[in-house]
Amino acid sequence: MKKIVFISALAWLFGMQPICAQVNLSDMDLSSADSLIKNRIRYFSPGNGGRGKVWDFSKKLSSKESLQIKFMKDSTGVISITEPSKINHYRTTPDTLILIGSESPLDKREYAREKVSKLFPLEFGDSIIMPFRCEGVYCGDHPFREVGTSIVKVDADGLIILSENKTIENVRRVHTIDSYSICMDIDSAALDTAKLTQIIDERYEWYLPYSQYPIIEDVTSTTYLDMNVIGTTRYAYCNLPEDDTAFYITPEDENGVVDPDYSSDGEPQTPDVIHYSLETNGKIIQLTYDLDEDVSITTIVASHTGMLCLNKQWTQSAGQGYVQQIDCNGLRPGIYILYINVNGKVYSEKVTL
Length: 353
Prior knowledge:
Shape: globular
Strand content: over 45%
Distance between the termini: 64 Å
Number of strands: 22
Radius of gyration: 21 Å
Number of helices: 2
Order of helices and strands: HEEEEEEEEEEEEEEHEEEEEEEE
């Protein structure tokens, strides 16, 4: 006990005030419950990955919306994470978090091919890639299927600044890309010829040591219909134990100026900082571009069924005349989605290989 008190005193002295422990799902006792407060914060560009990063969230942690997340572990060991509009069901082992199903007022999903969400402990550079498939029902009588690929990578580590003299060390950031298609009301045999809805999600999550639920999450989600872009939504949350919320989250005036970075209804009208052109030569996509400011770029090549084929990430300083080649050798001839995310703003093109 004296050692714990001494460590806490040092943390306070050096401005490293500890946050209450996040939820560790695999350590929950059967029939136990826990909760966090999920606060909607401004969307932000996640920046590049790497070692020893410093993430300053002190000016981003104001919120106009909050909700309570409840965690429950039943007698069979299934973890249910309940939000007002959705429940996700997970199976856990000491080193794996596996999504097995979800439900909402409109739909219900069961994963025929389980989706591994995380592998623990989170170590910089670790990555996994896996296909997933789920069967679902929409509005009680419309069957659908989701088929896709998930890539999960621990792409950064470092410390978080929450506010003045309040920082958290040994943080791991996880970058997840989900690319999948949704097939509604048709027999699975028709999957290759149907007009499909495709989704590409990019999710960045910041984890405390020994936690299996993120303290910060930042998401960009783009929807396509038959490979034509419909729109992009962006949102971010800070998830804290209820006792800590008052210390780190500043309430926003609900009657204040509308901030587009709080909106999930569509792509905010942020200015273009990239000006690009595309050429394809056989199986090589050449991206030529100029940049108005320093950026982080993600490119994804996905098929019409939503399968993730290639992805690439890099950072670039402001400048002109840049060229990036995306080698698609090995892919079947056909039409693909080229997804380009520049500091959180998404551009989409159809490319023929």
